[in-house]
Amino acid sequence: MNAHSESPARVAVITGADSGIGRATAVRLAEQGMDIGITWHEDEEGARETAEEVRSHGRRAAVERMDLTDLPAAVDAVDRLADELGRIDVLVNNAGTGTATPFLDIGLDTVRQVLDVDLVGPFLCGQRAARRMIRQGDGGRIVNITSVHEHQPRVGAAPYCAAKGGLGLLTQVMALELAADRITVNAVAPGEIATPMTGQEDTDVTTEKRPGIPAGRPGDAREVAAVVAFLAGPDAAYVTGASWAVDGGMLRMGPQAGSHLESDSWRRP
């Protein structure tokens, strides 16, 4: 095969790829031969470090700032990255935020901020990416990073749970509507993962004890990235509209935890 007949490298755009799950996913997809578009909100240095890791695997990387509280303008970053890298084959909606505030104390501004970042932003990013994938004509992959709180509630996280639950059902609608264009859409629902968002950057998860999780420890961001990589790859062509929990069994513990709690401490965020 001569150089002129080779297919272009697949391109993945990953929002919030300056650290944690986003960075781990960027590196994993680069290892699988993809060029990577990276967005960041506050940590530009972290995004640049992710880009260097991607390039160390021989892949191209492009970086754009994205503030999902500034909608719809923020979503233009998806188009800029696709323009710079030549196309978009995979979108990973990873950027997110949360709160630990009792329901009765949350202000409207906070509610709107969380919903914009965790639900409306992914909605609009998904539109931009899907439209380009359809124009390209050869399908694509969209993976929405939700949470175990897509499926079960958490005290003190009302807007976060509402957004993640909404993103889970949005994933299913997108899967139905985009299937004819060979675009699969799935959710990945992490449990407690050792990342900066949970205050556990660079944590060795094997040394952390979590009696309430069947696996007995938090997860590693690379364990989430591995599932995203499967969904973004050719082996998952017949997988769409599903939510993949990566939680060490946490979701299976609902009734079990309820019967073993020994205090009312869970009532407080």
From TrEMBL:
PROSITE patterns assigned to the protein according to its UniProt record, in alphabetical order: ADH_SHORT (PS00061)
One Pfam family recorded for the sequence: adh_short_C2
Any one GO biological process: monocarboxylic acid metabolic process
Signal peptide, first to last residue: none
UniProt keywords, alphabetically: Oxidoreductase
Keyword Oxidoreductase: yes
Region (Disordered): 194-218
Highest taxon in the source lineage: Bacteria
Entry annotated with the keyword Oxidoreductase: yes
Gene Ontology molecular function: oxidoreductase activity
Annotated family: Belongs to the short-chain dehydrogenases/reductases (SDR) family.
UniProt protein name: NAD(P)-dependent dehydrogenase, short-chain alcohol dehydrogenase family
Source organism of this protein record: Streptomyces radiopugnans
